[in-house]
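User: Structure tokens for this complex, please. No commentary.
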Amino acid sequence: AQKITQTQPGMFVQEKEAVTLDCTYDTSDPSYGLFWYKQPSSGEMIFLIYQGSYDQQNATEGRYSLNFQKARKSANLVISASQLGDSAMYFCAMREGRTGANSKLTFGKGITLSVRP
Amino acid sequence: ETGVTQTPRHLVMGMTNKKSLKCEQHLGHNAMYWYKQSAKKPLELMFVYNFKEQTENNSVPSRFSPECPNSSHLFLHLHTLQPEDSALYLCASSQGGTSYEQYFGPGTRLTVT
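Assistant:
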């Protein structure tokens, strides 16, 4: 079974509107972390937001928020007030086990987001 | 220079060539990683180094040989590659301990002809 599932086809959103990118995960480890990364056409993976499995509140970072539903094993990324520069690939990733220097991330296949002016 | 840098950004090599990819992090991190990103596939972790010691080799073929001379530099030596090795190779670093984010470089786009 895939550990990280991102099944949405290419997503489109109108500038200034909000968009939700879906991510479901599979793990039996009680301690894990969930990440979202953005990859523009330049190739660099840019860290956006992190949610720990024991965090009581949903993570937020500026226009990014993570809708963490532990029972459903979903960690959807919400981008508010979309900007043209948000057009990119978005990857959900998971680290199983506690934090540490050997953190291995498992990535999903990614979702392409296009923001329309 | 800030963050994680990678050179070269683009590389075309024949199957009999030997080349090296270089990664340097200016973040004072202790761990460094090599990932492979092929078209329409998730990122695949290749190697992990922690304080210069290799702690993970994700069943990578021996034609890929990593080297980590210090915590700031990471190399990936390439020899007798196959066309299916064409991909974007991403380097990342992280602090470890209580930190968690991995910071990525811009990648090297490798084409094997």
